[in-house]
Amino acid sequence: MRYYDKVTPDGTRDLLFGECVSRGEAVSRLTTMFRARGYRQVITPAIEFYDVFGSSAAHFPQENMYKLTDTRGRLMVIRPDCTIPIARLVATRLAASPMPLRLYYSENVYRVEHDLRGKRNEVFQTGVELIGSNALRSDLEIVELAASGLSDIGGERFRIELCHIGYFKALIDSLDAPGETKEQIRQCIEQKNYPALGDLLDPFGAARAALALRYLPRLFGGEEVFEKAYALFDENGARESLDYLRSIYDYLRQLGLEGSVIVDLGLVNQIEYYTGIIFRGYFDGIGEPVLSGGRYDNLISDFGAALPAVGFAVNADLASAVIEKQPPQTPDILVFSDEAHLPQAVNYIRSLTDNGLVVESSMFDDYDASADYARRRGIRQLHVVDDDIEVVDLVKMQREGRA
């Protein structure tokens, strides 16, 4: 029988000292900004009833969720997403609150990545939800907040890809095709698989929607994208979606973000989940999205409250990769005492830490062992607490050959 007591489960990993510092720094920068913008923290359970995600099976298939049962035999899941539990929370406990609600969270999510491809099953996310407003200004706030968050973490080394799912919906709804074919078309556009997309669209000939869908993965860039998209297709709500997206883009340009925001009309993931703008954030040198979000006006109604909403989530582990790595902090001082002077040593440590120093208490019974430990840890000073305090500069002693 094989034992797994010395390894972590697939898609998970241990974080060591510097990694914890980097992740904590990324989360701190984001949450500090969220609070400054009026967002309040909520925490939902790591374990939810399976029914919470039952209506979202298209986005979180049951085979992609970790499942277990409670003591009554009811089916539970370990949280695969933060937004859906927050939708439950808002509909059941906050629906009577003054709107809009500004909420943020910092929690792990767990999703089974069957082929992994370098992805993790356990991801720490920090994100926001702006609930109760469907005004353009709410979408602008969220996209600008996303840009500010990425900038706070990685400076100007980021880009945001921006889309409106309404344009794709207008195209695909104008195509006389079964649902399975439409989903295959969507996948090909998302993957920018031009040959397969062409094969799927060939039976529709010169239909305007088909021609536009064929070109959709190439509608990627700046202001010029809009004129191309208008020319390709402007029916069935497509023009209105483009007009709205263009307004958001123009505001972002006025905020100085033109060089960081790219229009990508081929961004067509989760069309049943999102209802308006969708966007992704990237850092230079990281090949997968660090941030993803969009408008989801129908989700909270699944729980009985018809409230519009928009938000985003940041993968804190990916985000922390761009933060300058700091070596693990070495204590400033090691304090040693004999057993008779332990209370004095503890009080002395308190006084040192009150002044902002990092101090360890020696766990050894003799001076030599304490000094040896301090040298191996790189601690510069050993303070010996007796009737008086003796400060030993270990670096100086080593330099003088007395260590």
In short:
It is found in: Cytoplasm. The protein is of the alpha+beta class.
* Nearest-integer average pLDDT: 92
Q: What class, by secondary structure content?
A: alpha+beta
Q: Counting H and I runs of at least 4 residues, what is the number of helices? A: 13
Low-pLDDT ranges: none
Give a quick account of the main beta sheet: strands, pairing sense, barrel closure: 9 strands, mixed
Give me the CATH fold name of the largest domain.
Answer: BirA Bifunctional Protein, domain 2
Give me the side-by-side strand order of the main sheet.
1-5-6-12-11-10-7-9-8
Shape: elongated
Strand content: 15-25%
Function: Required for the first step of histidine biosynthesis. May allow the feedback regulation of ATP phosphoribosyltransferase activity by histidine.
Subunit structure: Heteromultimer composed of HisG and HisZ subunits.
Main location: cytoplasm
Family: Belongs to the class-II aminoacyl-tRNA synthetase family. HisZ subfamily.
